[in-house]
C-alpha cells in the first residue's frame, strides 16, 4: 500500500502541519495511519472524516458531526455534514492534506467526491495533497454509462463511467490533468503508488469499506446492485447480507427468496423497513458470476414489478448519470442495445483513462 511505503512520503511530511483525510480503512504498519504517523513524529493537526465517519460506523447518508478522536485527542472535522468541502478556516493551520481511504471503484461511492473537494480546497488555499494509493477491488474493468453533466451530484461528480477502472491515485491525476476542479485550478499533487500492483491483481479488502459492504462478494456486486437504490427494490440494507439480497413487496410472491429489512447498526431506517420483500439471494453466486457490471437484474425486476409506475425513484438518474436508461428499460430494450448507446462516450473515456494509469492492465 502507498501508506506502508514510509520512505517515499515521510520526508514530504517532516516539518509540515498535516491534515489526514482518513477512515477505518486507513491502516499502515499494523495500526491506523493517525497512530502510525504520530509515532513517527509527524505533526498531525486535524483528522477529516468522509461519509460513514472516521470509524466507518455511520449509516449511508447520515450527517457526520465534528468531534474529537478519543485515542489521539485530535480534532475530527466532518466532510459529510454542513460542508462537504474543507473551508479556508479548516485548512488555515495546515500545509499538507494526506488522503488515504479505500475505494471500491464505482462512481457513486462518495469517497472519490470527497477527494475532489479536498483537492479543490487545497488548490484554492495553496496547500499540497498527498494521495497514498490503494488497490481498486473492481479495477480490472471499465463499464457503464458515462455521467452526463446535468446529472452531476455528490454521487457522481465526474464524466466517468459507473465502473471507472482507476485507483484513487489515478483518478486524482485525472481530475487534476483534465482540470475538473472549479475554475480549472490544479492541486499540488503527489501520489504514492501501490508497489507490485496491476489492474488484474485480485484484491479482497481487509477492512469493510463502509457498513453495508461486509465482504468481497458484496463489493463485486456493488456496481450492479447499487442502481436499485434508485428504485423501490431493497438491496438488503437492514439484513445480514446487504448488496447480496434484492427484493421488494412489489415483486411476485413466487420469487425464490424472501426477506424483511429491519433497523440495525449501519442501517437504522432501511428501505422497505418491516415489509416482506420477494426477490433473490445472490450469495449463491460465485465471485466469477458476480464480477462485472450487469443490467440483467434491473431489467428483470422492472419487468416483473407489480407496480411499474412506482418502480423508479427520482434518485435513479443521479446514480446512473444518464437520462436515457430509465426510458430504455421502460421501453423494453434488451441489454445489448442499451450498452450500444453507451458508446462512443465509453470508448472516449477508455482512451482518456490510458493517459493516467499508474499500473499495467495485467
TrEMBL record:
Organism domain of life: Bacteria
Record-annotated Peptidoglycan beta-N-acetylmuramidase NamZ N-terminal domain positions: 18-216
Gene3D superfamilies: 3.90.1150.140, Uncharacterised protein PF07075, DUF1343
Domain Peptidoglycan beta-N-acetylmuramidase NamZ C-terminal: residue ranges: 221-359
InterPro entries xrefs: NamZ (IPR008302), NamZ_C (IPR048503), NamZ_N (IPR048502)
Protein name according to UniProt: DUF1343 domain-containing protein
Amino acid at each position: 500500500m502507498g501508506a506502508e511505503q514510509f520512505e517515499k512520503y515521510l520526508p514530504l511530511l517532516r516539518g509540515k502541519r498535516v491534515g489526514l483525510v482518513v477512515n477505518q480503512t486507513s491502516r499502515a504498519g499494523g495500526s491506523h495511519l493517525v497512530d502510525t504517523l504520530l509515532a513517527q513524529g509527524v505533526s498531525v493537526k486535524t483528522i477529516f472524516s468522509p461519509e460513514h465517519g472516521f470509524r466507518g460506523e455511520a449509516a449511508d447518508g447520515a450527517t457526520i458531526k465534528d468531534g474529537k478522536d478519543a485515542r489521539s485527542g485530535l480534532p475530527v472535522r466532518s466532510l459529510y455534514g454542513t460542508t462537504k468541502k474543507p473551508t479556508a478556516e479548516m485548512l488555515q493551520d495546515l500545509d499538507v492534506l494526506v488522503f488515504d481511504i479505500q475505494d471500491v471503484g464505482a462512481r457513486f461511492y462518495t469517497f472519490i467526491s470527497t477527494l475532489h473537494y479536498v483537492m479543490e480546497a487545497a488548490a484554492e488555499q495553496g496547500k499540497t495533497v498527498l494521495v497514498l494509493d490503494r488497490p481498486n477491488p473492481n479495477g480490472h474493468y471499465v463499464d457503464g454509462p458515462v455521467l452526463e453533466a446535468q446529472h452531476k451530484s455528490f454521487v457522481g461528480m465526474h464524466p466517468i463511467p459507473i465502473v471507472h477502472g482507476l485507483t484513487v491515485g489515478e483518478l486524482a491525476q485525472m481530475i487534476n490533468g483534465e482540470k475538473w476542479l472549479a475554475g480549472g485550478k490544479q492541486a499540488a499533487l503527489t501520489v504514492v503508488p501501490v508497489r507490485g500492483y496491476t489492474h488484474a491483481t485480485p484484491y479482497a479488502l481487509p477492512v469493510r469499506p463502509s457498513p453495508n459492504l461486509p465482504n468481497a462478494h458484496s463489493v463485486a456486486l456493488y456496481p450492479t446492485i447499487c442502481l436499485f437504490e434508485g428504485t423501490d427494490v431493497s438491496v438488503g440494507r437492514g439484513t445480514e447480507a446487504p448488496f447480496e439480497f434484492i427484493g421488494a413487496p412489489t415483486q411476485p410472491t413466487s420469487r425464490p427468496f424472501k426477506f424483511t429489512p429491519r433497523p440495525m447498526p449501519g442501517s437504522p431506517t432501511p428501505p422497505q423497513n418491516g415489509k416482506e420483500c420477494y426477490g433473490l439471494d445472490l450469495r449463491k453466486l460465485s465471485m466469477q458470476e458476480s464480477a462485472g457490471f450487469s443490467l440483467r437484474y434491473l431489467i428483470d425486476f422492472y419487468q416483473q414489478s407489480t407496480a411499474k409506475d412506482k418502480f423508479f425513484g427520482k434518485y435513479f438518474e443521479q446514480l446512473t448519470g444518464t437520462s436515457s436508461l430509465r426510458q430504455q428499460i421502460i421501453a423494453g430494450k434488451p441489454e445489448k442495445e442499451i450498452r450500444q448507446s453507451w458508446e462512443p462516450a465509453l470508448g472516449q473515456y477508455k482512451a482518456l483513462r490510458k493517459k493516467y494509469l499508474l499500473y499495467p492492465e495485467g
